[in-house]
Amino acid sequence: MRAFKYLQTHYPEASKVKYFMELDEAGKTRYEVKLKYKGDKFDLTFDSSGGIIEVEKEIDCAVIEDAAHHKIIDYFNSNFTRYHIYKCEEVASGGEIFFEIKLRGKRPDGEHFFEAFFTRAGDLKEITKEEVPSLPILN
After folding, report:
1. Burial of residue 14, with CB atoms counted within 10 A of its CB: 0-12 exposed, 13-18 middle, 19 or more buried
2. How far apart are CA 119 and CA 75, in angstroms?
3. Which letter does DSSP use for residue 24 in this model?
4. Is 46 exposed, middle or buried (0-12, 13-18, 19+ CB in 10 A)?
5. How far apart are CA 91 and CA 77, in angstroms?
């Protein structure tokens, strides 16, 4: 119920709302809500009691402040021989606001998908290689 009140308060005219239930790494139930509000796409995560855990807002990477944007691009240019950014998000979680950037990049160990997390100042917090499940080829 708390989650619905939060949504009604903060996103009163949301559209394309979709609800999902998932388990986190510790096996705890979480609820994810995907929606569109005032032209922007959001992913919200709630705990099992309806408390907000995280809000992700999809953004255009170009809106990241210039100094931070340059540091992020310098990191990618220094650590990848080739890369393609396909999604940027501004994330509010645990009282902190940061950027999550999803990309496909080539390094000496091959080409992989990554999630990179940067502070608002453009400093790398963490980068993780994403395992993309292989799909069977249909004949």
Report:
1. middle
2. 13
3. -
4. buried
5. 23
User: CA-CA-CA-CA torsion for 94, 5, 37, 33, nearest 10 degrees?
Assistant: 60
Tens digit of pLDDT for each residue in 3-39?
889 998 999 998 999 999 988 888 899 999 999 999 9
Beta strands, E only, the chain: 15-23, 29-37, 40-47, 52-59, 82-93, 96-107, 110-119, 124-130
Residue 64 identity (one-letter amino acid): I
Give the total residue count for the chain: 139
What gap in Å lies between CA 54 and CA 96, rounded to an integer?
10
> How far from chain centre, in Å, is Cα 33?
13
Q: Are 34 and 43 in contact (CB under 8 A)?
A: yes
Q: pLDDT by residue (tens digit) across 44-91?
A: 999 988 899 999 999 999 999 999 999 999 999 999 999 999 999 999
Q: Distances from the Cα of 39 to the Cαs of 12, 17, 107, 136, in angstroms?
A: 13, 13, 35, 36
Residue 132 DSSP one-character state: P
Q: Is the dihedral of CA 70, 74, 80, 81 positive or negative?
A: positive
For residue 36, give the amino acid letter. Answer: K
